[in-house]
Design goal:
The protein has a domain at 622-708: 2-Layer Sandwich (formyl-coa transferase, domain 3), CATH 3.30.1540. Helices cover 35% and strands 13% of the residues. It is built from 30 helices and 24 strands.
Length: 799
């Protein structure tokens, strides 16, 4: 793979499960040599099937084959000295190691992350753990389900209906988010190593990844506005609705979209710009008529109309239909795996860069002897002074809302100079979505979502509808390393700023485009918000109750897209370092979503199984559910819950003991996961009675120290009450020239070489850096004053 940006980059994989597997898959796809070192029993994922399909002796599960394609496998027994020496020899000649707990190999003290970092100072050591390597919760058990509960992600954006328990987002999405973050951290750290620095320890917390991916900066929102983002569960309307031939998702996230929806359904009489009701309240008020209107039409009829009205929409993909959707067929979004199943294509496309095609997974220990006998060349640690990983990289940030800014924000936190380009007439949409009255002075500076997504950036305003504004943007791009945007393709087409134009301005620039559905295909120009991306990719299908329409996760589609885009940017920058060439990145939101939902199409094409949503039950644990406690919540409702997930038979024995060994739990049929799953209703009834008599804190205190994964279902704005997040300094307080100090999330991983603190400045004021940046571009004070007079730039909202 001579054209691959990570050729020669050697990664030892000491992890098990999805998070480490997906991290190293992303690195392997970029050309890295990944050596998966397994204990003699192998990664448990080799024997995993979400549908319970039978996996024969000597065979591997399809999901493992997807994640491990192109890697090499070495078996090492930590009880055998020669095997331990082999592992250390591999580490001495590697560039990075990915570690997670849970196998007899990784749990050996000599292979603990801090020990590896001390023994091999040249290495990038990435540790993926539920809560981080330190803090009061660092040794406590967790599952994807309980992490979603602790993070606030289960109730994050008011998902679901109030007459039932809230539900988690199905499909093990947090594991994929954690793997994506780990890959970003490794690639960023590598930039620092290539500049002559030493290795470092990356301490990634999966809980913090859940906070970043499944909630929408709720702490900053609460502290700036004095109210939570959502105080109740409400169905999004129309949201996911039944049509004659299936399910469609139709979004209504802005006032204009509500007006358009009214017009589309022939109800202009519902439009009332003076109503005190919110859009959500108005939509819920008219839900019966909206659902009846949709039920009388086919999915294509509803979607064609919605597209004509510029209303976000998508079909709700299922495991057996997602491949056949016209857009994915046209774009070749799915490809064959050598093991005989179908999988998503790469989550991004990079011009001039060869990403690894799907290839076979290694048999357990297939390459052990090869690595025992092959010569190796130990690496040495660099001694250059520490610098921020992306120091010296300039980014022209044309992004808006959540997906794009989440990509460029992480670049800024890692040291890049990010210049956010807005217009005084049409600023970033996140300056306008939080309900701050326009009667307030400088209301556009008081929006918490913008404040949270744009710290450590600079800001310039340019009216790109003017020739002078476009000319100045071109001059700015000429100084940039990266240009980022996430509009629908037609917007940049209208501005004449496609990649060819950027190349003419700056031939070696990396341009990352993040359209919802890609740069081609029949849905190319459709507006895309997180919820329609999640529906089209199949994530929504697994979220909710089987006897109701699926629920929209309404969250991770955006940050997941930003994470994958940043992985691609870091690959493209390495490609530029090696070749001097720029690159066009197409990081479609839906392609990133298809990859974290890959298990659905893999299970269907490999085993014929259509995975189903099942409320809060899931394939990885039994029992797994939410149970109501005795408390009244902060809103005065009988709506407080705990999450319990028993992932192993040993944890079941621990649960029985913690409950006082009641007779019902001693039934022999419940001793195995299969038996508990077959009797899930009975087990849930018993646990519900026990939890209902206790507070959430009491339940956690009884079960967690005993070794049972458990969590309180947190309201997301209460995240700072989690002692683990406080102990790790996950939030930093920032001052602001307009707003009172507030807490902001940092990054879900800590780099031993910094940054510390993570944030260098609060989010910029609109146009705050106009004079600084335009002066750098050669403009005089008189030139800048003329631009202000002409309205090309502005230092405040003038829409």
């Amino acid at each position: 793979m001579a054209d691959s940006p990570l050729t020669g980059f050697v990664v030892v994989d000491l992890s098990t499960g999805i998070a480490g597997g997906y991290c190293t898959k992303l690195l392997s796809d970029g050309g890295a040599e990944v050596i998966k070192v397994e204990a003699p029993e192998g990664d448990p994922l080799r024997r995993w099937s979400a549908s319970g399909a039978s996996i024969g002796a000597g065979e591997d599960g399809a999901l493992f084959s997807f994640l491990a394609g192109g890697k090499n496998s070495v078996v090492a027994d930590p009880a055998v000295p020669d095997d331990l020496r082999l592992v250390h020899d591999l580490l001495a000649s590697a560039d990075a190691v990915v570690w997670s707990p849970g196998s007899q190999l990784s749990d050996d003290p000599v292979l603990a992350p801090t020990a590896l970092h001390a023994a091999h100072p040249h290495l990038i050591v990435a540790a993926i753990t539920p809560f981080g390597l330190d803090g009061p919760w660092s040794s406590l058990p967790a599952t994807e389900f309980t992490l979603q509960a602790w993070s606030g992600g289960i109730v994050g954006l008011g998902r679901g209906a109030p007459d039932r328990a809230p539900v988690y987002v199905g499909g093990q999405v947090g594991d994929y988010l954690s793997g994506s973050y780990a890959s970003v951290a490794i690639l960023a750290s590598r930039v620092r190593v290539l500049a002559g620095g030493g290795g470092e320890l990356i301490d990634l917390s999966m809980l913090e990844c859940h906070v970043m991916g499944l909630t929408y900066h709720p702490v900053t929102y609460f502290e700036m506005l004095g109210r939570p983002w959502r105080d109740a569960r409400k169905l999004t309307v129309p949201g996911i609705a039944k049509v004659k031939d299936g399910l469609v998702d139709v979004g209504c996230g802005t006032a204009q979209q509500w007006f358009d929806l009214c017009a589309m359904t022939g109800h202009e009489d519902w439009i009332d710009e003076d109503t005190p009701l919110t859009i959500t309240e108005r939509a819920n008020e008219k839900s019966g008529e909206l659902y009846a209107w949709m039920a009388e039409r086919t999915g294509d009829e509803v979607r064609d109309l919605a597209t004509a009205f510029r209303i976000p929409n998508a079909p709700v993909a299922t495991p057996d239909t997602v491949e056949s959707l016209e857009h994915f067929s046209a774009r070749g979004s799915f490809v064959d795996h050598p093991a005989g199943f179908r999988q998503p294509a790469a989550p991004y496309r990079i011009s001039g860069v060869e990403l690894r095609c799907p290839s076979s997974a290694p048999r357990l220990g297939e390459h052990t002897e090869q690595y025992r006998t092959s010569p190796r060349h130990p690496r040495r640690a660099g001694d250059a002074a520490d610098r921020l990983p992306l120091s010296g990289i300039r980014v022209v940030d044309l992004t808006t809302f959540w997906a794009g800014p989440s990509c460029t924000h992480l670049m800024a936190l890692l040291g890049a100079e990010v210049i956010h380009v807005e217009s005084a007439r049409r600023p970033d949409g996140t300056r306008m979505i939080s309900g701050v009255p326009v009667s307030e002075d400088q209301w556009w500076e008081k929006q918490p979502i913008f404040a949270a997504l744009n710290t450590s950036k600079k800001d310039i305003t340019l009216d790109l509808g003017t020739e002078r504004g476009r000319e100045l943007l071109h001059r700015l791009i000429a100084t940039a390393d990266v240009v980022a945007e996430n509009y629908t393709p037609r917007v940049l087409d209208h501005l004449g700023l496609d990649y060819a134009a950027v190349q003419r301005i700056k031939p070696d620039a990396v341009m990352v485009r993040m359209p919802g559905f890609g740069l081609d295909g029949p849905w190319r120009d459709n507006p895309a918000f997180a919820y329609v991306i999640e529906a089209a990719a199949g994530i929504s299908w697994l979220t909710g109750y089987r006897d109701r329409n699926p629920y929209e996760p309404y969250s991770l589609g955006d940050p997941n897209a930003g994470l994958h885009a940043l992985n691609a940017v870091l690959l493209a920058l390495e490609h530029r370092r090696r070749t001097g060439e720029g690159a066009l990145i197409e990081a479609a939101m839906v392609d990133a979503a298809l990859n974290i939902a890959a298990e659905q199409v893999i299970e269907y094409s490999a085993y014929g199984a259509v995975l189903q949503r099942d409320g809060n039950r899931g394939p990885t644990a039994s029992p797994q559910n939410l149970y109501r406690t005795a408390e009244i919540d902060e809103f005065g409702r009988d709506d407080s819950w705990v999450a319990i997930a028993v992932a192993t038979d040993e944890q079941w024995h621990a649960l029985r003991a913690a409950l006082g060994s009641p007779g019902w739990a001693a039934r022999p049929q419940l001793a195995t996961a299969r038996g508990r799953r077959a009797r899930a209703d009975f087990v849930d009834e018993q646990l519900s009675v026990w939890c209902r008599e206790r507070s959430g804190d009491d339940v956690v205190a009884a079960l967690w120290p005993a070794g049972v994964p458990v969590a309180k279902v947190m309201q997301p704005h209460r995240q700072p009450e989690l002692e683990q997040l406080t102990a790790r300094g996950f939030f930093e307080v920032l001052d602001h020239p307009v707003n009172a100090p507030a807490r902001f999330t940092t990054m879900p991983f800590r780099l031993s070489r910094g940054p510390n603190p993570v944030h260098t400045s609060p989010a910029p004021l609109l146009g705050q850096h106009n004079h600084q940046i335009l002066t750098e571009l050669g403009l005089s004070p008189d030139d800048i004053a003329a631009l202000e007079t002409e309205g090309v730039i502005g230092a405040g909202y003038c829409g």
